[in-house]
Amino acid sequence: MGNDGGSIPKRRELVREAARLPTASELKATALESLTHAWTTCPLSDVPLDLSNTVSDWRGRLYNYESVLQCLMPSSSENATPESQEAEFARTGIKSLKDVVKLNITTRKDERGRRFAACPVSMKELGAATKSVYIVPCGHVFADIAMREISDAEKQCPECSATFEERDVIPILSADGVELEKLAKRIEELKTLGLTHNLKKEKGAVKKKRKAAEENEKGTNGESEKRKANGSNSNKPSKGKDDRNDISNRINNPMTASLTAKVLAEQEERSKRRKVIDGYKKSEVVR
Questions:
Q1: pTM above 0.85, yes or no
Q2: Backbone φ, ψ for residue 115 (5° rounding)
Q3: CA 285 remoteness from chain centre
């Protein structure tokens, strides 16, 4: 070895740098970049969001209205939807236009003529750096800090004065697990009420309720008919020898029933005696 003009590598040149965890600032920058992309780009079509034509689902994700409409329409050979777009749309869970809310986003322009979304109350720019929410069903968008100033007694949209409930304030593009869990509970509660995300009646909800009511009614009627049948069978006198003419089974008062049974027994005994006497008389005549 040696004398060949080569070099001997050192250890630090052979050993690669150990993988390290990203710092907090790097994680924050990555999250901010991802959130900025979600605020500016439609995930279905990968085109810039049209602020005047933006819709949102129950999770607070943003889409272009035309992209959602295109995915909902049956695809043809001429206007076939790309497979990647169909797969992304299937993950959204959107079944109809009732599953999205049209957003009313206030826009402004800065000194350079750049158009941006702004909160109509606080005048803050809405985007990745500002936590934002919208109200269902009117769809007006505000900064979260501005909505917190509204007292519980008011609960009216600052723009259109429409009343709303606390559950219908939807955070936009939230990554908080607690908020996402609340949103999931909200949509489940609305489904039990037969409502969709935009608080309109779910298709077929009325028929489902009517069908369930009819089934319940049939069940109660069937049980009542069975009870009546069982009651009528139990009230029928048995055809046994002892109960042949027993009317006491249909008498509720025990004392009256016992007296009636005694009277009937005496009448039956008398009829037997008469038959015996009549038969004896006939035999005497024959002799």
A1: no
A2: -90, 130
A3: 95
